[in-house]
Design a protein that fits this description.
By secondary structure, the chain is of the alpha+beta class. Helices cover about 45% and strands about 20% of the residues. It has a 6-stranded antiparallel β-sheet with strand order 3-2-1-6-5-4, with helices on both faces. A 6-stranded antiparallel β-sheet has the order 7-8-18-17-13-14. Strands 9, 10, 11, 12, 15 and 16 form a 6-stranded mixed β-sheet that branches. β7 and β8 form a beta hairpin. The N and C termini lie far apart (about 120 Å).
Length: about 525
């Protein structure tokens, strides 16, 4: 009887251990899969081609990276990766995100890092993910990151195309420890209660071990299928050992995942709201700019502004002032984004109104610009300033009167040759100091002269090595394209800047004025 009881207890022990191991492994896999799917919801796969091409992270990339990093740390993962793996061998890996647990021995691969990783289990798994869209959970023993469990899920873009794989990796050390503890615990029970009848021992196993694991597994399956609603199943697990700890951990994990989903939903909603507001701001700003060129018998004027962000801090304006004059303005506000655009909108309105007053008798050009400066100074809580070049051209005589408020020197073509207009009476940027005495400068243009105004988004564009486009390169472009019409000249310059710089960090504004009328010229003396 005792021998039979021992045999039966031993058999029950191994059956119980098998069920525990199977259920625990199933739970582990389900948990890892839930984590991977939750992390995937924070991704914007449409941006991946840009990230892999440029290797430069932007604000959206950092925001997603922070979410993934929190998931890695909160769930004590080894690491997480989002990568594109090349077919057909699936051993060429391009990393988009690779957060690792803070304080761990692992090092994070940077954006667009490339490596050849030949590991049959990994390569075959990637093939199934990319070609069949499968979701895979695998246990791996011998890799460079040791023994671990990994959940892989496909990442699709808005067209439903699989463009990347997300992997969540966790060490199996905890799994091995709990399994070992279980083995020792049940073995002790078998030794202590060897004399008990099989029925009582079986009931004990079911009550203290099997049922809690089954409840935990049921809850994991339920939560993976529907994470929107909570359940009290895990509250029925009253164990104070590893099983109870596991139940509490999973219960907390479910709460954290629901919180993550809520946060991601709020972030997405806020992002959509901001995009809507930025689109409105872009439309408003576009409405402030003059779009129809001036083309008369005496003068032609055309301009273009390309913002670095949705809204920019550059501004230009040109308009006929009476029958014989044209006013041209190019300005650049310090800072970027919506604050700069709003300050520029105020400066735009003031400049248009005050410079337009110069047509009337006894109205001082310098005085009107000074008044604009004073108003901007009194409403400048953000500490911004505006560099500006404001000119008024007499279209019959070629007489050009201008005020330089800390702006870039214009580029001028005279007798077919280009030169930068030397510094004359240069003033401080607008809004820099109240009551600053601005002084006007004078030039006389000759027929065939071309005046080019621009902002520093042209000359300070940077290539991948940090080299500036520069004034010399800009001058050479102007010389090589001096025969082109204004639109062709501007479009070609924008194409060259787009090819030259890695990313556009500043607004780009260009204004061209071609003078046609007969008039006197003093440019030979001015330009030397």
């Amino acid at each position: 009887m005792v021998g039979a009881s021992i045999l039966l207890c031993t058999a029950l022990f191994f059956v119980g251990f098998y069920q525990f191991d199977h259920q625990f492994d199933k739970q582990y896999r389900s948990t890892m899969l839930s984590i991977a799917k939750t992390a995937r919801d924070s991704l914007n796969a449409d941006l991946f081609p840009k990230y892999l091409e440029t290797g430069i992270p932007d604000g959206s990339w950092y925001a997603v990276h922070d979410i993934l990093q929190r998931i890695v740390n909160d769930f004590e993962l080894n690491l997480m990766y989002v990568s594109y793996v090349e077919a057909p061998d699936y051993n060429k890996v391009h990393y988009i995100y690779n957060p690792v647990r803070t304080g761990s021995k692992y090092k994070e691969f940077p954006l667009a890092h490339f490596e050849v990783y030949k590991q049959p289990i990994y390569n075959n798994s990637m093939k199934k993910v990319f070609e069949k869209g499968e979701t895979i959970v695998r246990n791996t023993l011998n890799t460079r990151t040791g023994a671990h469990i990994t959940a892989n899920v496909p990442v699709r873009n808005h067209l439903g195309e699989i463009v990347a794989v997300l992997g969540a990796q966790k060490s199996v050390a905890e799994f091995a420890r709990v399994r070992q503890n279980y083995f020792m615990y049940t073995l002790g029970i078998e030794i202590i209660f060897i004399a008990l009848y099989v029925v009582l021992l079986s009931a004990y196993y079911r009550r203290t071990l099997i049922n809690p694991i089954v409840d935990i597994t049921k809850e994991a399956v339920r939560f993976a299928a529907n994470s929107d609603h909570s359940s009290d199943i895990l509250e029925k697990v009253k164990s104070h050992d590893e099983i109870g700890t596991l139940a509490k951990s999973i219960n907390k994990m479910e709460q954290d995942i629901r919180e993550y989903i809520t946060n991601i939903t709020q972030i997405t909603s806020e992002k959509e709201r901001m995009n809507t507001e930025l689109n409105i701001a872009t439309s408003i700003q576009a409405g402030l700019l003059t779009t129809k060129p001036i083309c008369t018998d005496t003068v032609s004027v055309m301009a273009s502004m390309t913002p670095a962000k949705e809204v920019g801090g550059d501004f230009y304006d040109y308009s006929l002032l009476g029958d014989e004059h044209v006013v041209i303005i190019v300005a650049d506000v310090s800072g970027k984004g919506v604050p700069a655009a709003l300050f520029m909108a105020m400066g735009t309105t003031l400049l248009r109104d005050h410079v337009g007053m110069v047509r009337y008798e006894n109205i001082s050009f310098s005085g009107e610009v000074g008044e604009v400066n004073n108003v901007l100074c009194r409403h400048n809580e953000g500490g911004l300033f505006i560099t500006a070049w404001i000119g008024i051209l007499n279209t019959k005589t070629g007489h050009l009167t201008y005020i330089d408020a800390g702006h870039n020197p214009p580029l001028l073509m005279h007798d077919g040759k280009f030169a930068y207009v030397p510094l004359g009476k240069k003033g401080l940027p607008l809004a820099a100091m109240e009551d600053f005495p601005y002084k006007k400068n004078e030039l006389y243009l000759a027929p065939g002269d071309r005046l080019i105004l621009y902002t520093d988004g042209v000359t300070e564009a940077q290539d991948t090595k940090g080299q500036l486009y520069g004034e010399d390169r800009f001058k050479k472009y102007a010389e090589d394209h001096k025969e082109e019409q204004q639109k062709q000249f501007i479009d070609g310059l924008l194409d060259e800047l787009s090819s030259f710089q890695k990313d556009q960090f500043d607004d780009i504004t260009v204004l061209l004025l071609d003078y046609k009328a007969a008039g006197g010229s003093n440019l030979d003396n001015v330009l030397g």
